[in-house]
Amino acid sequence: MVDLLLLILPGVIWGASFLFIAEGLEALGPNGVTFVRILVGFLTLSLVPAARRPLARADRAKTAALGVLWLAFPLSMFPFAEQHVSSALTGMLNGATPLFAAAVASILARRMPSPAVLAGLAVGVLGAVLIALPGLSAGGGSAHQRWAILLIVAALTSYGVAVNLARPLQQRNGALPVIWRALALAVLLTAPLGLPDLVAARWTPRAAASLLMLGAFGTAIANVLTATAAGRMGATTASATAFLIPVVALALGVGVRHETVAPISVGGAAICLTGAWIIRQARIAEERRGAPVQATNASHSARRQAIS
Known about the structure:
Helix content: over 70%
Shape: globular
Number of helices: 13
Number of domains: 1
Number of strands: 0
Oligomer: single chain
Distance between the termini: 25 Å
Structural class: mainly alpha
Low-confidence stretches: 291-307
Order of helices and strands: HHHHHHHHHHHHH
Mean pLDDT: 85
């Protein structure tokens, strides 16, 4: 039962993050939403003693880079995007993160991925295109929607680079010390634009609760749970939580905020998740064979590392 909860809860929390962002935007500007969630996440993770373990001196610069690529930049993109597209669509597109991670890993390794991973990438990209198609088409989407989708893609690309950077750092230092220090830098980076939005906030109980949940659970606790799951069951098994995120985001967006999502986008989300599943299965098969997995070593943990 404990293992099952460790797999389910992070996916539910991260899937709900897009709803919390949309609710937070009712009170704060997008920069304020990003700053508050990172600040709350940092303060929450500060309560975990393991987060304050020492970090290897040689890894400090790369951990600082994670503060930009993993947190400050991508987490700034989602609130701006959700001003023009639904939380459900944003969450479904976020399911493509493993595809970006696998593609970036191949580029960094300067080698073609295995045929199975290529197949997964092809399927996943098709699904992502179908998710975004209503917003990208001339008749179905506005210029603001197209810009919002580009912002999401930029965030996912940043995640893809960050996950490949984070993996060896976490292997050497543990996940929590790396996340905590990256959050500390991200607080400083987002404060100059976030504080003015915070001062001008129009708070409601719902918006305040949403941002507290977003920061404490989505930016901190879910990472603690997934790090625990990876320790108990292995990273590949723990990565299964990723498949819940688009489903939860879709259900909450439609059920709570009454958002409208085109059927082709829902079908695209299913196809995108299928591509991510194919990549994950290829990863498992390569691990069993003991083959090199450089081109796919980040895909299984992409949702685990991305804090959305």
